């Protein structure tokens, strides 16, 4: 697909799971890599195309129940994403994409099989979770607090094979207490919008995981930092 030194980023099924400006996450990752002098190739893989197995980072976005169920079926049938994860690829999975990484999820009133790549299951909630979501990220990841926007009907239960991405300080996330999950180099979150514009430190974590670096040259994140401070200072925090 490319030379060894080039970072390969795949955006999974933009034709099905791109309801919330998910392309922004791809652009931000590519830009933050390029600013560090890291060569990048990006691939937008539609649901009628085979999933490449050798990329370094995979992004999967949010979507409505119908496209979410279809995406899960196609990814299971394709099998390429399972191989990529088995080979150590880094993943950012958002909302519908996060749910379908689990064992099962609810869509259109039916329980659907997920990819089984995260030890989570999702059920239907009694209310829809819509609005700001904030949380203190697992200290082991060394990141500033998460802020984002959530819009989902499902609620997610975490098994022992994953850790919560964050402890909720505002909003609902998985269940009102925890938000998102991570295991190995897979990171799932209900924050979308796109999440990496508001949380550039998560973009850098994915880049570090992908290239195996402990740190990256810092960038000027004044605007993202200001937005985070503003959101954290807002009522309800
Ligand atoms: N369809 C899923 C739910 O409502 C995911 C929604 C989304 O991606 N925003 O829970």
Unreliable parts: none
Q: Identify the quaternary structure here.
A: single chain
Supply the CATH superfamily name: Class I glutamine amidotransferase (GATase) domain
Q: What would you call the structural class?
A: alpha/beta
Separation of termini? 45 Å
**Global shape:** globular
Count of individual beta strands: 11
**What value does the average pLDDT take?**
95
* Residue share in β-strands: 25-35%
CATH architectural name:
3-Layer(aba) Sandwich
Number of domain units:
1
Please give the count of helices.
Answer: 7
Report the radius of gyration as a whole number of Å. 16 Å
Ligand identities: glutamine
- Main beta sheet: strand number and arrangement? 9 strands, mixed
* Series of H and E elements: EHEEHHEHEEEEEEEHHH
CATH level-3 fold name:
Rossmann fold
Protein name: Lipid II isoglutaminyl synthase (glutamine-hydrolyzing) subunit GatD
Pfam families: GATase_3 (PF07685)
EC number: 6.3.5.13, 3.5.1.2
GO molecular function: carbon-nitrogen ligase activity on lipid II; glutaminase activity
């Amino acid at each position: 697909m490319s030379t060894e030194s080039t970072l390969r980023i795949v955006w999974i099924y933009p034709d099905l799971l791109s309801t919330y400006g998910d392309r922004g996450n791809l652009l931000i990752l590519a830009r933050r890599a390029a600013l560090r002098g890291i060569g990048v190739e990006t691939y937008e893989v539609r649901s009628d195309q085979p999933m490449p197995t050798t990329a370094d980072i995979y992004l999967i976005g949010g979507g409505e129940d119908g496209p979410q169920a279809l995406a899960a079926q196609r990814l299971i049938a394709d099998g390429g994403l399972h191989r990529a994860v088995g080979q150590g690829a880094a993943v950012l999975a958002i909302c519908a994409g996060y749910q379908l990484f689990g064992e099962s999820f609810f869509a259109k009133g039916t329980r659907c099989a997920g990819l089984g790549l995260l030890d989570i299951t999702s059920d239907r909630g009694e209310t829809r979770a819509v609005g700001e979501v904030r949380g203190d990220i697992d200290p082991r990841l060394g990141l500033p607090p998460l802020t984002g926007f959530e819009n989902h009907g499902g609620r997610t239960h975490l098994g022992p094979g994953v850790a919560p991405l964050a402890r909720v300080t505002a909003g609902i996330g998985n269940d009102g207490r925890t938000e998102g999950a991570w295991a190995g180099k897979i990171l799932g979150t209900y924050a979308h919008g796109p999440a990496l514009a508001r949380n550039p430190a998560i973009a850098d974590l994915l880049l570090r995981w992908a290239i195996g670096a402990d740190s990256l040259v810092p960038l000027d994140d004044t605007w993202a930092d200001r937005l985070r401070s503003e959101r954290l200072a807002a009522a309800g925090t």
